[in-house]
Amino acid sequence: MSKSISKSTLTQLITLSILIVLVVVLSILAPEFLTYNNMMNVLRQVTFVIITGSAATMLMITGHMDLSVGSLLALSGVVFAVCAMNDIPLFLAGLLGVGVGFAFGVLNGILVTKLKVTHVIATLGSMYVARGLSYIVTDGKSINAGLPRGFDSIGRKMIGTIPIAVIIAVLVLLIFFFLESKTVFGKYAFAIGGNKNAATLSGIKSNRLVLSIYTLVGTMAGLSGVIMASRLGAGDPNVGNGFEFDCIVAIVLGGTSVAGGSGSVIGMAIGALIVGFLSNGLNLLGVGTFYQTVFKGVILVGAVLLDSLIKKKLK
Amino acid sequence: MKSKSLKRWLSVCLAATAIMVMTAGCQGKEEAPADGGASAAQSESPQASDAADAADKTDTASGGKDGKAIIGKVSYNMNEAYHQAECAWFEKYAEEAGYDTIIIDGKVDSSIMLNSVQDLISKNTKAIICQPADVANAEALVQEAQNADVPLATFVNKAETTANPHIRLYEAPATKELGAAAAKKWMEWYPDKKIVMAIIDIPSSQQVHEERALAFVEGVQSVAADAEVAVMLDGESSRDKSMACGEDILQSHPEVNMVYGINANSVLGALAAFEAAGRGQAEDGIPKTELFVGTDGSEQEAIKIYDPNSSLKLTMALSPKNNAKTQIDTAIQLMNGEIDAKSDYEVEVTDVVLDYWNTPIDEFQKFLVDEYFSEMDLKQELGLE
């Protein structure tokens, strides 16, 4: 292995290899797996993780985490539905939904950077507040009555043969890939995650940068919520339970360190695809639901172990 | 070096576990339910053999084992005894009729349910039965299936604007009967004590709220017009959350003398809180301070109902066997074209009331064995043998 290949690239190659092996195995076991329609299904299913995970990866690179994204997804979706139901133009309703995510992102950022609340506690608090608000707004029930025509466009419609949601996810991924690898913003994020004190002493405005990434995470969770509501054709306050863990799993599978300082947005996307393909493949194979849960846990730990083993071997 | 070798061993073990789990998972669905064989075999009927013929007629290029067509099912929540039993019967009846099945756990999550329906469509299932998370979710699932030309029938929650075949769980009459029976008993024991109810509900489920919680109250008030509801709390269908609700009721409304739980977890959780506080007791089957009423007809409810010292004395039992049979029959009719997949066809299934006074213990035991594949000996559990 050439020395010019960085640790991050190596991690991505390993994760990509796992994804390829998984696709090959599932294609052999389930003939329906490798069809265009099924691939689009999986892509549509991982859209939300990729959109939110793109920003959350940057956040984890700085050594922070956001546990409120699942609840923000639900709240943004119901706000979008309520606004649309009340004759607010769809585009504006969508913006308001995303805006709710943005506002919570700012709040999380302020709590962590200005008020010095631990990131786990701050975002856990937001998680409860956002979930509670979604129930209050909807009175605990899904909203689908009185939604205007076109509400489901962004979640269900296609451009050509590609779902709009997938196109949005790819665009978001590319933007964050650019931010991470081609801008000072990305380099500073790595520096903060590597050593926050050193980064601050060298003139990086760490708090401001972390606050802006929290805002991005909230905004992306809001965007995911709007797309989710559109896909479901309803504002459902119950969606997104465990979504924060789906994002964390994809990010960690993609080689991002929970402690910060290393990671990649592309790796997260590969991680999201691994989880998506695995879940879809196991369903197609008719694997029992309880076994699936065990299997996913085994794959997660196994992939991370394999990654670490191969890296050591190559050293 | 040591850590390297440990990691290597761990990797090998994880890989082996993954293979075993996958193998076991794939095989698990073919195993007959523990006790279902005998009961299900008895139910072999002309309809079942018609169904088998239908299976032969159905296009078999669907990827099922031995070329069998596949019926898909998205279960509401596989963590609950009722749904586990319903899925086991679903598989059993499908197998008898000559079909394969794929059952996916919807986990009461509308996005998981939509993903599951898409997966089933990818698998070329010939019909799908689904209990959506709620009415709004039903709309999305039906549209997804109809766009892919795969017939889908909903169970419990029906799409409101898109016409689709539906299996209606018509519970209100049984719940009203349950409420009326509970009120009659209470007034028989304590004619001077006004009934004050607490309901452990799931308000987010329209079906449950209307056909169980509200119907129960209506049933009670049909007998005791002055009966009132002190509090209605969300137990989230979880035992621990319902126990917390029970504890809260004891603090805020200690005067409550009738507690209704919309499922087994709800009533057993609340009862556990009352028992911990020294209440929830009965003497010779007559509750001392309050009467508990449940829903589901599970093993654990049965143990409490036939315990003369427990104040849980009635339940409304669902029939996983009958409901699964209706689901399979509907799926077969959809595949045969006997039911239009875009019509408002509706078939009803109902519940039954079981209680301490009118249902002999042997009858409840038979119900558990027939419906839930129960291996529990109720009398032995209660120390009656």
TrEMBL record, chain A:
Signal peptide: none
Cellular compartment(s): Cell membrane
Gene Ontology CC: plasma membrane
Pfam family, one: BPD_transp_2
Source organism of this protein record: Diplocloster agilis
Topology within the bilayer: Multi-pass membrane protein
Entries under PANTHER family matching the protein: ABC TRANSPORTER PERMEASE PROTEIN YPHD-RELATED-RELATED (PTHR32196), RIBOSE IMPORT PERMEASE PROTEIN RBSC (PTHR32196:SF72)
Recorded superkingdom: Bacteria
Lineage: Bacteria, Bacillati, Bacillota, Clostridia, Lachnospirales
InterPro entries, sorted: ABC_transp_permease
UniProt keyword annotations, A-Z: Cell membrane, Membrane, Transmembrane, Transmembrane helix
Transmembrane feature ranges: 12-30, 42-61, 91-111, 117-137, 158-179, 211-233, 245-278, 290-310
Gene Ontology MF terms in the entry: transmembrane transporter activity
Protein name from the UniProt record: ABC transporter permease
TrEMBL record, chain B:
Pfam short name (any one): Peripla_BP_4
Coiled coil: none
CDD domains: PBP1_ABC_sugar_binding-like
Low complexity biased stretches: 36-52
Periplasmic binding protein domain span: 74-338
Localization (cell): Cell envelope
InterPro entries: Peripla_BP_I, SBP_2_dom
Keyword terms: Signal
GO cellular component, one term: cell envelope
Cleavable signal peptide: 1-24
Region (Disordered): 29-65
Listed GO MF terms: carbohydrate binding
Cell division recorded as keyword: no
Keyword Nucleus: no
Family label: Belongs to the bacterial solute-binding protein 2 family.
PANTHER family hit by this protein: D-ALLOSE-BINDING PERIPLASMIC PROTEIN-RELATED
The protein, known as: Sugar ABC transporter substrate-binding protein
Source organism phylogeny: Bacteria, Bacillati, Bacillota, Clostridia, Lachnospirales
